[in-house]
Amino acid sequence: MEEIKSTNFIEEFINKDLADGKIEEVVTRFPPEPNGYLHIGHAKSLCINFGMKEKYNGKCNLRYDDTNPSKEDVEYVNSIKEDIKWLGFEWDEELYASDYFDRMYDCAVLLIKKGLAYVCDYTAEQIKATRGTLTQPGEESPWRGRSIEENLRLFEEMKEGKYADGTKVLRAKIDMASPNINMRDPVIYRVLRATHHRTGDKWCIYPMYDFAHPLEDAFEGITHSICTLEFEDHRPLYDWVKVNCGFGDFPRQIEFARLGMTRTIMSKRYLKKLVDEGKVSGWSDPRMPTLSGMKERGYPPEAIRRFCQEIGVSKSQSEVDVCMLEHFVRDYLNVNADRMMVVKDPIKLIVANAAEDEIYQIENNPNAEVKTTHAVSFSRELYIDRDDFAPVPPPKYKRLVPGGKVRLKGSYILEYVSHECDADGNVTSVTCNYIPDSISGGVNASIKVKGVIQWVNAKDCIDLTLHEYDYLLLDGDGDFNDRLTPDSHKIYPNAKGERYLSDAKQYDRFQFMRMGYFSAVKDYGKDGKYEFNQITGLKDSYGK
RNA sequence: AGGGGUAUCGCCAAGCGGUAAGGCACCAGACUUUGACUCUGGUAUUCGUAGGUUCAAAUCCUGCUACCCCUGCCA
């Protein structure tokens, strides 16, 4: 294989292993525990692991790390699968840690036979009490010296169900005085009576992560087991299991810093709480930082991948500004999202000199690589947004004002004639004349106007539902605080039902996530077969 | 007897002894049938800190400091 330039430290490891001839193919894996939905943090891991497969033309397996039946569920394995596909990744093999339970059991027996594991009768409390502390060594279990024969017999009896949950465990015999607490005779098998979502009640003992993970990796021929930083301390144990169970230099564990993002809750525990307490409609609620929530929100998967690519990979603890994610969403949408016109708070606009109805084509997206158009109809009665007409214009106002001109996007230039107000002084309608031949290409098209506004034909526009999202502030402990209702965070559905998020307001002093309500607001566009509406997912087009 | 990590612009992040890439954000102009987009220009004399080695250090050495992770029969 020819040498490939590395762009991060993980690739440096891989390139070295390749250059040294230690491996011929790169094999990675994405190993979620099916105990929740995937979120944006998982997207980073997904992009790294599948990224290695793509870059090195290797393999990447999807493997469910289902070694704790008390927390796991098939609902999650299905959602995980869907979300990975949605992001656009293809795994080579779909595997389950539970498929290896027999082989893992055999490995445990092997360790016992080598005198490297023993059955311990301590309770969880006793194990904790004798583990020592960060600064003091632990003390050895009185069961540490059991004979191999006795250990073999007891372990088999554990498997056969002779012992109650929590009464016996299998421990690796390593070093109770190790400064690395993970090496102080870690538990590698526990008795646990719970129905497993795949193996049912076949087993009543289950392997622990530290024992299971290196074996899963080794069984599958994983070359690089990429995980997050908090497992760095576990690497010696990972290697201990790997070597003592008869494997060589590979797989190798490499750790990177997990994704932290401003204003985003990434703790699975807390996300689950939101779902369980009904604060959100579910894991796929558009306010959730889950992949399915972002999908619901209208985030394109390409944007998420691009984001993951651009934030890079390192070992320094970091918190990426959520603006970065939103940038790549906008960046993608700018080129790929169809533009339609929408009027949020309509007032009637009468085109006094309009003779007959017209239909013409306007571009779906002027930034698209392949230009397409859609039909728009024009008539004597239109709607424009209340914000787009100012009886008394503020400074620097660029839209319609008494005595002024403005262009209807994709259509004619309008000249103000008059306007009417109700008893409270609210504008109820505006009357204008259009300037003939002022559509693009016409002889009057070059007349200078201050601004361009969106509009819809009153005759054939349709109502839309505008989903408005509120934020719920969370304090440092993750408890709910008072509500805040920023005005700039709205989600507009387009004709395909996709929703794009507008730019978010910034709050510095709190962690918070999107919460709130859906409010139905009348919007006016064209009927279903015409595309309409506006620049969703882009920065507000009208500044202050 | 504690161990393991990390420290480069407001936020990510390149850099691997030869004199601080890039992206986000921000600021200023230009352009514009979306006040968007696009474009142009501007943003670290300095790399946690104090010393040392060297003609030359963010990069090597030494000592400090700050932050993160580890005492589940979770993963």
What does this protein look like?
With 544 residues, this protein is an alpha+beta fold. It contains twelve helices and 26 strands. The chain has a seven-stranded mixed sheet with strand order 17-14-15-16-10-13-18, with no helix packed on it. A four-stranded antiparallel sheet has the order 4-5-6-7. The protein has a three-stranded parallel sheet with strand order 1-2-3. α2 crosses α11. The radius of gyration is 31 Å and the shape is elongated. It starts with 8 loop residues before the first helix and ends in a 20-residue tail after the last strand.
What is the gist of this entry?
25% of the residues lie in helices and 22% in strands.
Enumerate the spans where pLDDT stays under 50 for 5 or more consecutive residues.
Answer: 470-544
Total E-strand runs = 26
Backbone CA Rg? 31 Å
Q: Summarize the amount of helix as a percent range.
A: 25-40%
Structural class: alpha+beta
Count the DSSP helices: 12
Oligomer: single chain
Strand-residue fraction? 15-25%
Largest sheet: 7 strands, mixed
User: In angstroms, what separates the terminal alpha carbons?
Assistant: 57 Å
Shape: elongated
Strand order, biggest sheet? 17-14-15-16-10-13-18
Mean pLDDT, rounded to whole units? 84
